[in-house]
Structure formats: structure tokens, C-alpha cells
Design a protein that fits this description.
Length: about 625
């Protein structure tokens, strides 16, 4: 093992990037690229490049006690997980891509048994027929080619699980290259010749623009003839460093100026003093409008009329949906970033406007929309128009909130309750919004209550003096005297908590938020139907509730008592009613008479006893043969 490699601050398993210049630069700084695991000493720090590696290589590095810095592309890592899951279920894996490409090798390293690769029609047709299979793609695959091969694979696989795992950035770049090449006279593709991604871009550009050049460095441009009148398109592979791209653009500008002077010797030349007079003056914090002139993977180049173009990082754009030629409003962050570039930002403008709008809404008493982002100590951080806002736990709900993280990702309406302009701190409340909404809902509900109407409700709680019933969000009281037509000792004798009942609205007082209800008035009065329920001659059960000197009162149902006269209490004559019955006894009585107008019912215990005695006599005791002759 080379001693320089052993002393390196980090090692990479294969070139970290498909760009020889960048790999050489990293090597000069001590980052050593090795091709195999046997070249890695125990305990080394190893960087896994974006292509990723198979499971066995990860396990081998762990066995060597290496510090692993996993830089696998998230899209590639997601494919690894898909392949691993399919393999564990026994589902065959097919990768549409180049078998020898490091990314494809790494993907197949998560399949056991190893999967298959398909790169052409012959590969697809050579596969055996399968019941099912997982089909994934190399992330840099051309989408049209992937679709063509999947169509062929469907003929071999009865139930294919097709996952179009092409990187969205790759698809966008490939689409943009084709469109750009169609408009260009000369197309320049900048990238490492070992890069699969750059090679695909070159082939796509070449198909649309025959004069397409594939270069690794700006110096290679010197060997090509380019006219000042040519429309030149420039693109770069995903692994091409920004510095090389900028160098190519600068070299093209130099070539364009040189060709222009050579072709037009008599062209008028404006002095630098005159040029500078036409340029705008910039200062940090200034807001200007510029035109997008170039878009790279990480930055957008904007012409703001200054002697140097401005750069906006894509992370500082309010929207990544921009294209060359668009006019955008930007703020100057730095006039010179140390390399002669003007640093610009769109988010600063958006944040400032959002802040001003939030302040205006608070002053006007208006609500704002926010999205929960992170549960923190004491509350929740939310995003309101792109501005971080704190919601205390006590202001999240009308009731105590046990799990604050349940609000993460939730869109909610908020009221701004505090703004600290100096600290750029905003505090909001969801609770106060809910209180306003609840008050409005209750007010609307109170307007719907109509005295005399019958509504459905749910018994919420009981008290000695009555039952509280929820009738759509408002609790009304059914007094104990309005629970039943009969006497009620306690509300629990009639209703129970959770029971759904119909109630009649007796009185409504919106100002005091009180409403009186009646349960008994939703049921017929006992005396109005007494004649139908208790016809003369019928035998029913009742409870002795009161005794007087002349008889016993028997409750047939709440609110309906009948009298058993003392003469009807027993089969024989008794001196007092208590000799036959006592309060609380359950007795069977026969209805003798019902007078609903006078609210009187006459009952008899004696006749029930006589009927029972008669029924107990055997029939043969009354046989005709047993009657003596005269």
C-alpha cells in the first residue's frame, strides 16, 4: 500500500467525480482515489461516492473498522432500498442501464441473487419469461430509451413492477439540452469523457445540432473555428465543476471578441470610460430588475446592467421555475463576492414583503395562514408567508395539547399576537382564532333556536336539579320537574349520561347563554291516553306509593296513579289498608273504571285474587256427573 494513501485525510472508492481535473486537484490536497477494497488500510476514512456501492462493500469497510462518509446520491440510495426490499421478497431485479457503470454495479450489489441488466433490445429479448420482476433505471438513463426497453420487458414479464428511477434533474437537463441544441449553430458540452451523464448529453445534443463539441477544459476550444455570428449553446454534465463551466463561458466571450475585431476592423470601439457611464451603480440592499441570461445546476446568472453579471443561488430564488430571458426582481447582497461577481437574492425581497404584509395584517386584526414546521420547547414553529413564527403551546388549542408534534405539517389559521421588529420575532395564536370561530358559530346557532321546537340532544351531565343536554354545541337545562310527568327523585331515574333524547325548547336567553328544555313534553301526557293503555277489565302491575284510610294509591307509570279502595284490597274484610298492602309493594290490579276527565282510575286487588283462585280449581270439580240428583 502506498504510504501517501495511508496518510490521506480521506480515500474515495473510485473517482469521486467524473472529471480528471477535479480528481487531480483533490489528490494534490491529499484525497486519494483507490479502485479496490484491498488498497484501503484498516481504520481509514472512506468516502462513498454518489454512485453508491453494494451491501458487501459496505460490510467489508465496516469489517476494516473504517470511518464511512456516505455521499451516495439520495435518488440512488432510494433505488438500493427498492432492490433490497424486492430481493427479500424473492422478486427478481432488472436494472435498465450500463452493466459496467459504477452506479449499476452498486445497485446490483443489493440484490441477492444478483439481478440482470438491460441496455438494448437484444438484452431484453434474451431474458427468460418471468411471473414478476422489479424494473428500475440507472438515474442518468434517457427517458425515451427507458420507456422503449420497458415495453419490450413487458412481453417477458407477466406482472412487472416498473419504477422510473431516472433523476428528475437529469431528465430536465436532457430535455433542456435538446431544446437548446435545436436553436444553436454550435453546441458545446462540458464534462468528463468518462462521465455517462455527460456522454448522454453529448449524444442528445449531437442529434439536434451536428456541430456539437465535447470538451473537458476551456483550453480545448482553441482548436475549433467559431464565427461571431454563430449562436452558441453551452451545457455541462452533472459532475462538471462550476469553475470549469465559468472558464468555458469566459473563454467563449474572449473568442467572440477576438473574432469580432478580426472580422470588422472598422467597427467603432467605445472607450471604457463611456461604457462605465452607461452602467448602473449598485449597493448592498438595493432592489433591481434583471434578465436571466444563463442557468447552471446551482445558480442563475442575471444581467442587471452592471459591469459584471449577478449570481443568484437557486436556494435563494423564490421559485425555481425560471428560464433564460425571464425578468426577475432581485436584491443586491454583495457588489463583489471576491471573484468579481455580484451576489443577488430573491428570498430577501420575498421575506421583506412577507414581513410587511404580516405587520399590516396584525394592525388590521386580520388572520394569516401558517404551516407547522417543528415542535420545540414550549410550542411550535410555523411558516407564515415564509417567515418563521412561534406558537406557544398554550395558544395551540382551546384545550391542553399533549403532543405538539401532531401539528407539524398541518395548515392552520393564526392570529398574530406579538411582533418584535428589532428581533424579527413573531408570536401567533391558533387558540384565539378558534375562540372567535367558536363565538361566531355559537351566535349563529343561537339564532336558529326557536321556542316550541323539538330538537335532538345528548345528555352530557346530571345534577340534583336536572340534566344538561347538548343540542348541537350548546348545553341546555332540563329541570328535574321537566324530566317526567311523574314525580322524580333524581334525574338518573329517567335519563343517563350519553343518552340521546328529544327535547322541547321552552325558553332561550342568548345574552346569558341559557336555554331551558323539557323532556316530558316530547311524550304524551299519561291521562290523555290512559283509557287506551289501561282498558277496563285489564290486569296490570303497579307500585303502592301512598296509603290512606280509604285505600291505597298504586302508580301504574310516572304521573298516573289509580286507587284501590279498602274494600278492594283483599278477599276478606279488613280493618285497615296496611293489613293487605304496604308502601313499596308491587301488586297486580284489575282496572275497574277509567275517568280521564276527572283523572281517576279505580283498581281492584280483590278481583285479581278471585280470578286467580277460580283458575286454580280443577275442572273436574265442576263436572255434571258429580251434581247430586234431586
Amino acid at each position: 500500500m502506498d504510504t501517501a494513501a495511508a496518510a490521506a485525510p480521506a480515500m474515495t472508492l473510485g473517482p469521486i467525480i467524473h472529471n480528471p481535473q477535479m480528481v487531480e486537484k483533490l489528490a494534490r490536497e491529499g484525497v486519494i482515489s483507490v479502485e479496490t477494497l484491498k488498497d484501503i488500510p484498516r481504520g481509514s476514512r472512506v468516502v462513498i461516492r454518489s454512485h453508491g456501492v453494494g451491501r458487501s462493500q459496505i460490510e467489508a469497510l465496516q469489517a476494516l473498522n473504517c470511518e464511512i462518509l456516505d455521499a451516495t446520491c439520495p435518488f440512488v440510495a432510494r433505488i438500493h432500498e427498492m432492490v433490497r426490499a424486492a430481493s427479500e421478497e424473492g422478486i427478481p431485479v432488472i436494472v435498465v442501464g450500463e452493466r459496467e457503470h459504477p452506479e449499476v454495479v452498486g445497485i446490483l450489489g443489493w440484490s441477492d441473487p444478483p439481478g440482470s441488466t438491460v441496455m438494448c433490445a437484444e438484452d431484453a429479448e434474451a431474458l427468460p419469461e418471468m411471473e414478476r420482476a422489479l424494473i428500475v433505471s440507472q438515474t442518468t438513463m434517457v427517458r425515451s430509451r427507458f420507456d422503449e426497453l420497458c415495453a419490450l420487458l413487458k412481453r417477458r414479464i407477466r406482472h412487472p413492477d416498473i419504477r422510473a428511477t431516472i433523476c428528475p434533474a437529469t431528465q430536465d437537463r436532457q430535455s433542456e439540452v435538446t431544446q437548446l441544441a435545436q436553436r444553436a449553430d454550435v453546441m458545446i458540452v462540458v464534462g468528463g469523457r468518462q462521465s455517462s451523464n455527460s456522454a448522454k448529453l453529448y449524444r442528445l445534443a449531437k442529434a439536434a445540432c451536428p456541430r456539437t463539441l465535447f470538451i473537458e477544459t476551456a483550453q480545448e476550444l482553441e482548436q475549433f473555428q467559431i464565427s461571431a455570428s454563430d449562436v452558441i449553446g453551452i451545457t455541462a454534465g452533472a459532475s462538471t465543476p462550476d469553475c470549469i463551466i465559468k472558464e468555458v463561458v469566459a473563454r467563449m466571450n474572449d473568442i467572440e471578441k477576438k473574432v469580432s475585431v478580426d472580422d470588422t476592423q472598422e467597427q467603432a470601439v467605445m472607450s471604457m470610460e463611456d461604457v462605465e457611464k452607461t452602467l448602473v451603480q449598485l449597493r448592498p440592499g438595493q432592489i433591481v430588475t434583471g434578465t436571466v441570461v444563463q442557468i447552471t445546476e446551482d445558480e442563475v446568472c442575471v444581467n442587471v446592467g452592471y459591469k459584471a453579471d449577478g449570481l443568484v443561488k437557486k436556494s435563494d430564488l423564490s421559485s425555481t421555475d425560471v428560464k433564460v430571458g425571464d425578468e426577475i426582481e432581485v436584491e443586491v447582497v454583495k457588489v463583489n463576492d471576491g471573484e468579481g461577481n455580484v451576489l443577488l437574492s430573491q428570498k430577501n425581497i420575498i421575506n421583506r414583503k412577507a414581513w410587511e404584509e404580516i405587520v399590516a395584517k396584525q394592525e388590521a386584526g386580520e388572520f394569516v395562514e401558517g404551516v407547522g414546521k417543528e415542535a420545540v420547547k414550549g410550542g411550535l414553529l410555523a411558516d407564515v408567508m415564509g417567515v418563521r413564527t412561534f406558537i406557544p403551546a398554550s395558544q395551540l388549542s382551546l384545550r391542553y395539547v399533549e403532543k405538539i408534534d401532531e401539528f407539524v405539517g398541518q395548515t392552520m389559521t393564526l392570529k398574530i399576537i406579538e411582533i418584535d421588529k428589532a428581533k424579527k420575532r413573531i408570536v401567533a395564536s391558533r387558540k384565539q382564532v378558534l375562540q372567535v370561530e367558536e363565538a361566531a358559530r355559537k351566535k349563529e346557532l343561537w339564532n336558529t333556536f326557536e321556542v316550541g321546537s323539538i330538537v335532538k340532544g345528548t345528555v352530557r351531565r346530571l345534577a340534583d336539579f336536572g340534566a344538561f343536554v347538548d343540542i348541537g354545541g350548546v348545553d341546555g337545562l332540563v329541570h328535574v320537574t321537566d324530566l317526567s310527568w311523574g314525580r322524580v327523585k333524581h334525574p338518573s331515574d329517567v335519563v343517563s349520561v350519553g343518552q340521546e333524547i328529544d327535547v322541547k325548547i321552552l325558553n332561550v336567553d342568548p345574552e346569558r347563554e341559557r336555554i331551558s328544555l323539557s323532556y316530558k313534553q316530547t311524550q304524551p301526557r299519561p291521562w290523555t291516553v290512559a283509557g287506551e293503555k289501561y282498558p277496563v277489565g285489564s290486569v296490570v302491575e303497579g307500585k303502592v306509593v301512598r296509603i290512606t284510610t280509604f285505600g291505597a294509591f298504586v302508580e301504574l307509570e310516572p304521573g298516573l296513579d289509580g286507587l284501590v279502595h279498602i274494600s278492594q284490597c283483599a278477599l276478606t274484610r279488613i280493618a285497615k289498608v296496611e293489613d293487605a298492602v304496604n308502601v313499596g309493594d308491587i301488586v297486580r290490579v284489575k282496572v275497574l273504571d277509567v275517568n280521564t276527565e276527572a283523572k281517576r282510575i279505580s283498581l281492584s286487588i280483590r278481583e285479581v285474587l278471585e280470578d286467580e283462585a277460580l283458575d286454580s280449581v280443577p275442572e273436574d270439580e265442576f263436572a255434571i256427573d258429580d251434581i247430586p240428583e234431586a
